[in-house]
Design brief:
The protein is built from 10 helices and 20 strands. The strands form 4 sheets. It has an 8-stranded parallel sheet with strand order 7-6-5-4-1-10-9-8, sandwiched between helices.
Length: 453
């Protein structure tokens, strides 16, 4: 595979993924049968999909629930139709959560929906329904596994290392998932504390088997294709990379909870709709979760909320991004020579922890205002000569330049006779490299120099 071809494929994958904008997350599994209860009592601590960890639940008794997984009211077409009618463009299904129960047919274990009373490959049913309804299909997969005997046992933090035999087990299951269900738009990894080599192995496997796939940041170690915000989170700074907000209708749980308070529907509709538009206008994607009931059916309250949101999206004119307009100009190019300095910092997040909250400055930006059409020589100036050669990129009015900053120099030209039309233009300087893993901006002050000809 040539680098140029591979780069083109990744750029196309990013573009297609960003155009999805709004999708459905589905949490479903043995935990759905519990509904947040055990032995007739509410389990109030923790998320209901992790009841095996948070509740007084004997492991063997929980796993016997596989013998009750008949899901007689599961209807993949109804789920896909709800997503479509709600204005969504894709579905991401939990294929295996932390409890290790697989919703797909696998040669690796009998602990799956295919071997339960329903005898269904749930992943296949949802994938096929997505295809019929014109939706893209993505997969959630848990790094950790509380069923596999060679994985680490349940911990209070879920950030567990992945032993070699467990890693091989994960790779075998991911190979099945990425090979047997048609095109996959997104791989949504979760939890665990893999090594750099393990993260790289999963990323390389996914990109090889599904060249158009996008992998979330929780593959860890900066091998993701997009940043996963904290649950229901929004970035507190401008991001120059693909990002997604995973969101819930109720912040208390992702899996079905039978005793969940379901009231204030209109407030839910308004709040979530505002969040969707805010994320979209900020350049992100929004993945809104539903938790199917133990029989496989959709919670009516959740269906009503989603359909009402879909109507609001249609009233707005569809999933159209309304990017925030250019801020007030940082400088007006009215003098013979103008220096841009300071600038607004832009960030990426590291993939080193669950919430991906470590910000790394990778760029600075300005807004310039040109008072009349003109031609400019553009260069950079530093506050001191460089001790080591650096390389940066600059975007000016939709044109990109890569400029080396030579050792021992404090000024250097970027381009000559560059035409700028009257009006506002964005200018940014950033480190080269893939969006999600660009190196940190060097500790130096870069001034962009505009000299009118």
């Amino acid at each position: 595979m040539s680098y140029k071809w591979q780069n083109s494929v990744r750029a196309n994958a990013v573009s297609q993924w960003k155009n999805l904008k709004y999708g459905m997350f589905i949490h479903f599994g043995l935990f759905s049968l519990c509904g947040g209860m055990w032995n007739g009592k509410n389990v109030e601590y923790g998320y209901s999909e992790q009841i095996l960890s948070h509740g007084p639940v004997p492991h063997a008794d929980y796993e016997k629930l596989a013998d009750e997984f008949s899901i007689e009211n599961f209807d993949a077409d109804r789920i896909a139709s709800l997503a479509k009618d709600s204005g969504m463009n894709y579905i991401v299904l939990v294929t295996k959560h932390h409890d290790g129960f697989c919703l797909f047919r696998t040669a690796t274990t009998d602990y799956s929906s295919a071997n339960s009373p329903c005898h269904l490959d749930v992943v296949k049913k949802i994938a096929e329904a997505c295809s019929r309804h014109g939706l893209k299909f993505g997969m959630y997969f848990s790094w950790i596994d509380w069923h596999f005997p060679y994985a680490l046992p349940i911990s209070p933090h879920n950030s567990d290392v992945i032993p070699p035999r467990h890693m091989q087990y994960n790779i075998e299951q991911l190979t099945e998932l990425l090979s047997n269900y048609g095109p996959i738009c997104e791989l949504w990894m979760d939890m665990g504390a893999p090594t750099v080599e393990q993260s790289m192995q999963v990323a390389e496997l996914a990109h090889r088997l599904q060249p158009g796939i996008m992998i979330n940041g929780r593959v860890w170690n900066d091998f993701g294709d997009f940043v996963t915000m904290a649950d229901n989170g929004y970035p507190d700074c401008e991001l120059d990379i693909p990002w997604q907000t995973p969101a819930t209708i109720y912040h208390e749980t992702w899996g079905y909870r039978s005793w969940q308070k379901r009231n204030g529907m209109q407030k839910k509709i308004d709040t979530i709709t505002d969040s969707i538009f805010n994320v979209m206008d900020g350049g992100g994607n929004y993945l809104l979760n539903i938790g199917l009931m133990g029989d496989g059916s959709i919670v009516p309250f959740e269906s009503d909320v989603l359909l009402a949101i879909g109507e609001k999206i249609r009233q707005r004119g569809g999933l159209v991004r309304h990017p925030h307009s250019l801020r007030n100009a940082d400088a007006v190019l009215s003098a013979k020579t103008v220096l841009l300095e300071g600038g607004t910092p832009h960030f990426r997040y590291s993939g080193s922890d669950y919430y991906s909250l470590h910000k790394i400055v990778t760029a600075y930006s300005w807004v310039i205002e040109v008072d009349e059409d003109g031609w400019y020589d553009i260069g950079y100036a530093l506050n001191a000569p460089l001790e080591h050669e650096q390389k940066l990129c600059i975007d000016i009015a939709d044109e990109t330049f890569i400029f080396p900053m030579k050792r021992g120099k404090s000024e250097f030209p970027i381009c000559s006779s560059f035409h700028l039309e009257k009006g506002k233009h964005a200018v940014s300087v950033y480190t080269p490299g893939p969006d999600v893993s660009r190196p940190e901006f060097p500790e130096l002050v870069v001034k962009i120099k505009f000299n009118r000809l």
